[in-house]
Amino acid sequence: MTHSLAVDADAVHERIVTGVAALEGVDPTALPPLFGAVDPDALTAIFATTVSGGERTGRISFRYVGHQVTVEFDGSDVPLVTID
User: Fold this and answer.
1) Considering the chain, what is the average pLDDT of its residues?
2) DSSP assignment, residue 19?
3) pTM, entire model
4) CA dist., res. 18 & res. 16, Å (int)
5) Which of 6, 9, 53, 58 gives the lowest tally of CB atoms within 10 Å of its CB?
6) What is the model's pLDDT at position 43?
7) 22-24-27 Cα angle (round to 5)
8) Nearest to residue 59, comparing CAs of 80, 35, 83, 38?
9) Buried b (16+ CB within 10 A) or exposed e, 28-65
10) Nearest alpha carbon to residue 42 among 57, 55, 18, 60
């Protein structure tokens, strides 16, 4: 099952945890820390607006609790998180 979320860039790490928890049918606090898969602060920072004000674009994928998580930024203010 694939679960896609459009989220605020500052809360992307929270939405990943809550999205995986929903797919697993567990409380988010029952999951291991996201930090074991990816640094949440780095995930937010990597796609932050540049010093000159330009938007960054790109995609990052990683495994978390047996799910493939992909975060895509296409230059808009809202990243897309896909959890397979």
Assistant:
1) 81
2) H
3) 0.79
4) 6
5) 53
6) 82
7) 60
8) 80
9) eeebeebeebbebeebeeebeeeeeeeeeeeeeeeebb
10) 60
